[in-house]
Design a protein that fits this description.
The structure holds two protein chains of two kinds. Chain A has one helix and eight strands. By secondary structure, chain A is mainly beta. Chain B folds into three domains: 178 residues, Immunoglobulin-like; 222 residues, Immunoglobulin-like, CATH 2.60.40.10; 122 residues, Sandwich (Immunoglobulin-like), CATH 2.60.40.680. Classes of the chains: A mainly beta, B mainly beta.
């Protein structure tokens, strides 16, 4: 009886879980040391000087929608912006810089409503 | 004895914990006169035992007194090195903190200041150096050497060479991202005992709205039309010329190089709106009449077909065709990728009207006894740029159209200064997202109600994204355009030729891309350059993206 109840509970819990818009990125992938973030929330690039593309870790407090913004390193003007739907914890993504001008930038993680959760400076060389 | 030893050890550790790494910057050589080359070294000092693997620092120098020549990386073998430069900016340190506290100032720039970290300031240039290495930096290692030419302080607005270089912030990190506390030494760098200057050198100051002054060259000709001096302007827009003779009349002209990367951003929908409004108004020209322009020079700049030194519908449709990417039968003079049509002249008379003709006087005569004759301001403009986004706006009163339709209440209100430098701003949202089909959708979302035209120059990585479709939802009256300028660069926008209908609010533009390789996200794949709108009265709307 106990086993049946446990099984039913599990089925019920799984049935209630909404995964319509949620994309957990690389769920089983281990976070390499160069991308580990000590804090509970943040954004980190594998390298600061980038030429074509670079691995990025986005560590999130909750499942949901977030913005990844690239700002000019001098004017702070927004250059590029992406909306991602991702899961709690580490999410290994990429930043593609081949079409960005050679310059200094800041990459920024915000929630859907533009509240800043993390920043990192980088240079396209 | 034990107590004394304990005390000493505790004092040692206390002192050590308060020590900080530092960035030191100092001259390598001695400079004594104008024209000398100053070599500055930037160096790491390690006090706290930290293992530095990422060094990034930012310094500013006075570009009226120093001119950048070159830099030399001293990064260790295998390290990555990058140098960036921006002219016309000055750092604003965090209030109520030590300007020498480099990691505090870095955090201020990166996390706290937002748009307030730097101000525009024509006299200053900012340099940023980044070095990333796998092996930790050793105490005393140099990062980089910079070479500067010492400029004449005469006419610069400065009495001395004090505080001409200053490190703004430093980002020192260990390999795991730990921030290293950092200070700087000294607080600022000054030069003393500089001699020479004002000894016959002739100076040209370039006047343009374009911030990239080093893309311009000058040519000095004698009365026979022979070139006697040529060269490029420095980052501050100055050129120092020697060898000119006193009491001889020369002419000077400036030219923008035709391979500048931003020429496609000079003539936009804002210029189109002004030219259309002028064509509708008709009757423009030096003789006056009904006009929407504020200066006579705009008749020249707007005559992109080059037919009559005045603006008509042929010119407006030529600019519209250019923005749409349609080839007309005309060989137009619009400033665009690979093509410039330059105008230049002495600033004080640039665009003046003499005998019913717009003039660009170029002559000058150095006189030994008159130091003011040893300097000229040379203004520069580009054909098609009627809103002066990359051109100098005339200051001479005879160049203004007194009967102009300075009917625009907005322009009248700004008559005390530049008529075109003031624009309106409005919020807009430009964002990319991967949809359920795996396509990258770039959406332009706007709630602005009164735009008769808009333009977005969008850059994407053509090696990863293939443009599949552009979806317009701008309303029924607008003429829409999407024009692939080159692989990975598209111009999208709308314009109502009657200057009455407006771009529909909502999501007026969507670009659909198909990835040509597997991607999980699209950060950096799509970026935006020109993003502007225009109202019926010609007022430019600069979009702010939060």
């Amino acid at each position: 009886m106990k086993k049946i109840l446990t099984l039913l509970s599990l089925v019920l819990i799984m049935g209630c879980y909404q995964d319509d818009d949620l994309v957990t990125l690389y769920p089983d992938q281990e976070v390499p040391q160069s991308l580990q973030i000590k804090d509970l929330i943040g954004i980190k690039l594998e390298n600061t000087i980038v030429t074509d593309r670079v691995a990025m870790n986005v560590k999130l407090p909750l499942d949901g929608k977030y913005r990844i913004k690239i700002r000019h390193g001098m004017t702070n003007e927004l250059i590029s912006q992406e909306m991602i739907t991702a899961g709690e914890g580490d999410n290994l993504l990429k930043v593609y810089v081949a079409s960005l001008e050679k310059s200094g930038y800041v990459i920024q993680l915000t929630d859907e409503f533009h509240n800043i959760l993390g920043n990192q400076s980088f240079v396209v060389n | 004895m034990k107590k004394i030893l304990l005390l000493l050890i505790s004092v040692f550790f206390t002192l050590n914990s308060f020590g900080q790494s530092s960035i030191s910057y100092s001259p390598v050589n001695t400079v004594t006169k104008v024209g000398d080359t100053l070599i500055m070294k930037f160096q790491y000092y390690k006090v706290d035992g930290a293992e530095l693997t990422l060094a990034q620092f930012d310094f500013e120098y006075n570009n009226k007194l120093l001119s950048y020549i070159s830099h030399q990386s001293i990064a260790p073998t295998g390290a990555s090195f990058a140098r960036n430069n921006w002219t016309g900016y000055k750092f604003n340190p965090k209030a109520d903190t030590s300007e020498d506290d480099m990691d505090v100032q870095y955090t201020w720039w990166k996390d706290e200041a937002g748009n307030n970290s730097y101000s525009t300031s024509a006299n200053w240039s900012v340099e940023r150096t980044t070095i990333q290495t796998s092996a930790a930096y050793v105490d005393g290692n140099e990062f980089v050497k910079y070479s500067f030419k010492v400029k004449d302080k005469f006419g610069s607005g400065y009495d001395n060479y004090n505080d001409i270089i200053k490190v703004n912030w430093a980002n020192y990190q260990e390999s795991d991202g730990t921030q290293i506390q950092t200070t700087k030494n000294p607080s600022t760098q000054s030069l003393s005992g500089i001699e020479g200057g004002n000894a016959g050198a002739f100076v040209i100051n370039l006047k343009t709205a374009n911030s990239v002054k080093t893309d311009y060259s000058y040519t000095i000709k004698n009365s026979a039309g022979e070139s006697v001096a040529t060269g490029d302007f420095d980052e501050s827009g100055q050129a120092s010329i020697s060898g000119l003779e006193n009491n001889v009349t020369y002419t000077a002209e400036a030219n923008l190089k035709e391979d500048a990367t931003y020429l496609d951003e000079v003539v936009t929908v804002s210029d189109l709106a002004l030219v259309f409004a002028e064509a509708i108004g008709a009757g423009s020209g030096p003789s006056g009449g009904s006009t929407t322009f504020d200066y006579f020079i705009q008749d020249i700049m707007g005559d992109v077909v080059g037919s009559d030194n005045g603006v008509d519908f042929q010119d407006s449709y030529e600019i519209l065709a250019y923005l749409q990417g349609v080839t007309s039968g005309n060989s137009n003079l619009i400033t665009q990728d690979g093509q410039t049509e330059d105008y230049s002249g002495i600033e004080s008379t640039y665009g003046a009207v003499t005998n019913n003709t717009v003039t660009f006087a170029k002559s000058f005569t150095p006189i030994d006894s008159d130091t003011s004759s040893k300097t000229i301001d040379l203004a520069h403009g580009l054909r098609g740029d009627v809103n002066f986004s990359h051109s100098w706006e005339p200051s001479v009163s005879s160049g203004e159209k007194a009967t102009s339709a300075q009917t625009s209440s907005f322009r009248i209100s700004s008559a005390a200064g530049s008529k075109y430098s003031q624009t309106e701003t409005a919020n807009i949202d430009l964002i990319s997202e991967i949809n359920d089909d795996g396509r990258v959708v770039f959406s332009i979302n706007s709630e602005i109600e009164d735009m008769v035209g808009s333009q977005f120059n969008i850059v994407y990585d053509p090696n990863i994204l293939s443009l599949e479709n552009v979806i317009f939802d701008t309303g029924n009256e607008m003429t829409n355009f999407s024009n692939v300028i080159e692989a990975g660069y598209i111009r999208v926008g709308s314009f109502d030729q009657n200057v009455s209908s407006t771009v529909k609010a909502g999501t007026p533009y969507q670009l659909i891309f198909v990835p040509v390789e597997d991607i999980s996200n699209a950060s950096g794949l799509i970026s935006f350059r020109v993003k502007e709108g225009v109202k019926a009265d010609g007022t430019q709307i600069n979009f702010i993206i939060q």
